[in-house]
Amino acid sequence: MEKFLRRFESFMDDFEIRKKLFILYIVCVILPLIVTDGFIIYFVVHSEQTERQHDMENIANAVQYNFTNSINNASGVARNIYMNKYINDFLGKEYENPLDYVTSYQEYFKSVLFDSGFGSDNIIVKMYSDNQTIVRGGKFGGLDEIIDSEWYQQLQLSETDKTIMFLYDKSKVPMVEAKRKIIFAQKMNFYNGDSFEKVLTVEIDYSSLVRNLVKMNYNMPVFVCNDKQILLSNEDYNSVGKNYQEFKFENRVGYRQDMSLYGMDFQIYILKPEMTMVSQMMNNMPLLIISLIVANIILPLVLVRGFNRSFTVRISELSDVFQKIDDERLVQIYDVRGQDEIGELMRNYNKMVNRINSLIETVYVGRMKEQEMMVARQNAELLALHSQINPHFLFNALESIRMHSIIKMEYETADMVERLAIMQRQYLEWGNDLVAIYQEMDFVKAYLELQKYRFGEKLSYSLEMEDSCRAYKIPKLTLVTFVENACVHGIESKSKPGWIFVRVFEKDETLCLEIEDTGHGMEEAQMKDLRMKMDYASIEMLQNKGRVGTVNACLRLKMHTNNQVRFHVEGEKGMGMVVQMYIPLKYV
């Protein structure tokens, strides 16, 4: 591996800086963008398709439930009549004359409350019999009226005594307009005491089924079919006065569900929406491609070219002056520009030239050492820049994850990633160990929100800070160290929910920091040991295991306040802990 790296470095050393920058641009920008954008597009499309498939399945189940429920309601009404002995006796009795029939009608149906027991706003019940002594009218008719009807023929051919049929009734045209009907028919053969054939029908209101389907407000087209015939739909295919239409959308079917009721097979088709996220992306593909080219290729290419010229032109000038030696004297650079490292290098070169030209014969060796020192310093500066770039890429990666979570509507995950980025930035930015209290409180809030994501309802917290204390500065991570202890050693160890209170206030020329928890608490011996560590925090203690975070925070407070900080700890086993820190205002 080491041999390969040496060969690679030697190979790259032969390339011009301009080519190296373009290679860096292609490998570190273009290729990662293509890969990440491809993965993002794939996951977005896959997620959208999965969610749409789940929605279509739920819609189909809901439609099947409502449709089956409506048919079963009609079946239930038919069953009640079918098993009603009064009605069967009434239809099977031979009457001497019409007056005898009317008298029996009034006598029987006053007691059974036929209309209130079996009637409904959405159904019409009618019974037929070949008993010639029955006066036809109302809910009763003769068998000869229906002998040639489609539903009666289907009932006779059915293997069971009941059937359901969707039909377009035009038998009474032109006296009555043709219209769609849903007929549930059943033979009345439960009681076989007479020789008459009896049949009952329950006509379901077609319009009510359509209204129920439309009211569901499904965001996808729904069709209930039988052998490619559209029976019901939430689209414009439900005109009662028109015959049933043929289903012609096989190429758009996203989900199909089959069901069977009373010898009749039904198909529920859910069509894919015409405009999905994928289709929108495809419709806007030219604009999307142009945007990606501009944002991911052209603009970075312009910047790389600018960086390239900024580097190579001035480095070439440096190279040229090193080659222009007049009487063994180095030539100065007269057009020094830029405030970056190369500009500084050019200015330093001029300083070096002035000194070397004056001491070239006496301090040649010293000049060589000075050059080596300058190169080392430049390398150190480049390493410093590199250490600044790494966190930059980390935060960019966290932001990419957060935006991807937002796209997938995982808002809770996006919020947690954002808080993690706040905490990570606080850890990395160590240019100054002091931080304003309001910034430290923001960091505490971010940490507690992350812990609340872990503990859920087990953890509650309250943050209080007086406005006069916002700008005071304390060593970084002072508060969060003790808040972390409260979470890990207090709330986590307790089975019941607990609270963490953080209070910052000013009293008697002293800044007071207070962290209280209602967690597991401590034994008195443990508390005594904690007080000792806080009061006598030292570098030596950091080498031991245990609460090194607490020792670290207390030691930095003692160093910052010239050992004027005071600590106070109280608590009780099973009840919780209170940690208080008092800092004179002149140190904040």
Automatic annotation (TrEMBL):
CDD domains (alphabetical): HAMP
Annotated source species: Kineothrix alysoides
GO molecular function, one term: phosphorelay sensor kinase activity
TM ranges: 21-45, 285-304
Localization, UniProt: Membrane
Keywords annotated in UniProt: Kinase, Membrane, Phosphoprotein, Transferase, Transmembrane, Transmembrane helix
Name of this protein: Two-component system sensor histidine kinase YesM
Keyword Ribonucleoprotein appears in the UniProt entry: no
CC per GO annotation: membrane
Top-level taxon of the source organism: Bacteria
Domain HAMP: 309-361
PANTHER family found in the cross-reference section: SENSOR HISTIDINE KINASE YPDA
InterPro entries: Bact_2-comp_sensor_kinase, HAMP_dom, HATPase_C_sf, Sig_transdc_His_kin_internal
The keyword Transferase is assigned to this record: yes
